[in-house]
Every structure is written in structure tokens, then in C-alpha cells.
């Protein structure tokens, strides 16, 4: 998959393409359906598909509260898009100046002049242009004048729930990682560099990988989870079973929220390595124990339940 930053860096030989546009945080099942349709249409037409996305999140520039908790880093988003068969990823730098483009300017500058849209596929709730002035009908009207049709794809729902990035963030904030996984189509992952902590886990017989997370990461509610630590290797990603703690270590009067993964049956050094941690199931909430012995006994039980959950 080709990737470039800003319309000015669009490859000179980039021909007509099927374009889809959005933030696509999480690349969840709704996004996957939308992008899948764009990829299929491109193959039917014998041309390339391209995703146009925004960085940073528009709310980081325009929202009074800053960006929401992010489900994916830009790197992870690109990785997921590549697995869907996308041919190109155009990352549009979102600035206040960019946000002031009207619908006509956006279509001309981005879709027609830069990405050479032969067709555009968007979600049925898509909005664009200054103050979100344009919708799918607006895009179709302007697109007609530029010679490309527009498809508005219905949102994906299951059991009465519409899958969206906002819904998934809510699941994660509540610790409902299995609900998040249903909407994502995979377990939620956080990413960061393994850094040195208090070494308390090692002293207790359960050495943990302490992650320094990317800013604004969507972190599950405090508790203990069964999941995996994912390492990048020359042969590809390797997922290792792990019991994961999210919280402040209340037994030791901790104050800083941390994500720490105890990798089962692992003997090695992960310091300074960039890894992912995936959450498969919540085992329990975060607790304060009256003694270290009680904590160690509970950790042993957490590891046992992690093995059972991952084996199942």
C-alpha cells in the first residue's frame, strides 16, 4: 500500500481511483464494510482504491476538549487498512486552515484535482466542508459536476447496536473489552514502548512489561484482563499470552495509572521494545489487598484464569 502525507505529495502517476474518506479511528466493522465496498468497486473498474484520512483527529484542532480517546495510532490504522486491500493511503493534515475549506473547495482540491476520483464511497452519515456544511447529497451533487458518482453506505448494526468509534470508546472505558471486540472485529490493542517501572512485579515472581503509551490512547477501565502482548519480529508479529493489569497498584498506594503485562512462560528482555497489548476479556476489577501474600495468591489465580480464557 502506498502512503503519502498531504495532497501535494500524491504520486505523480496516480491515476483515476475509487476514494473513501473518513477519520476511521479503530477501523471497526462499519469502516471495514465501507472500505471493502470501495476496494471492490476499484477492482471492478480496474483502477486503484485510496483512503483519505485526517491527522490529527479533527477534534484535536476544533474541539474544546481536545481529541477523544484514540482507538488506533496512525501507524496501526495504516497497518489495518493494508490488510483490507487498499492501494493507497492519503493522510490529510488537519489544520484550522484546512477546516475552513467549503464543500466545493474540498471536492475540487482533494477528490478531483489530487486523488482523481472516478467514484467516491462514504458512510451514509458523512459530513464534510467548513462547519460540516456538506452531506452525502451535497457530495453527490458536486461530484456529478466533476464526473464521479457517490455511494452512501449504510451503517453496520448488530443486535440493535450501531457500530461506531464512539460506541467502542464507551465499551473500553467501561472495561467491556469483549463488546469492543465484537464491534472492532478483533481485540482492542494499545501500543507503546516497554519502560522500566518499580520492578515490583519481578520481586513478586511476576515480572511485567510496563508500557509508555501513545498520547490519548483509549485505555480500558482499571482491572485485570486476559490478553496478549504482540511483538514485531523479522518473521512477522508474534502474539504472546499475557495477564494484563490496568490501574494504580492500590496495594502499594500507587497514583499513576499503568498498563502492565505479565507474559506467560516468557523469559527475556522487552525493555525499549515497541509492543502492542491486546485485551481479550476482563477478569476482575482492581482491588487493594491487605497483604502482599494475598496479592500474590490473587495474581496466581489471574494467571490461571488467563490460561483458561485464552485456551477457550
Write the layout of secondary structure elements.
Layout: E1 2-5, E2 17-21, H1 29-45, E3 48-55, H2 58-62, H3 74-83, E4 88-93, H4 96-99, H5 103-112, E5 117-123, H6 136-146, E6 150-153, E7 157-158, E8 161-162, H7 165-173, H8 177-184, E9 188-195, H9 200-203, E10 209-213, E11 223-233, E12 236-247, E13 258-263, E14 274-284, H10 292-311
Parallel strand pairs: 1-4, 2-3, 2-5, 3-4, 5-6
Antiparallel strand pairs: 7-8, 9-10, 9-14, 10-13, 11-12, 11-14, 12-13
Write up this protein.
With 312 residues, the protein is of the alpha/beta class. It folds into two domains: 2-158, 3-Layer(aba) Sandwich (Rossmann fold), CATH 3.40.50.620; 188-311, Elongation Factor Tu (Ef-tu), domain 3, CATH 2.40.30. 31% of the residues lie in helices and 29% in strands. It contains ten helices and 14 strands. It has helices at residues 29-45, 58-62, 74-83, 96-99, 103-112, 136-146, 165-173, 177-184, 200-203, 292-311, and strands at 2-5, 17-21, 48-55, 88-93, 117-123, 150-153, 157-158, 161-162, 188-195, 209-213, 223-233, 236-247, 258-263, 274-284. A hairpin with a 2-residue loop joins β11 (223-233) and β12 (236-247). The longest helix has 20 residues, at 292-311. The protein is elongated.
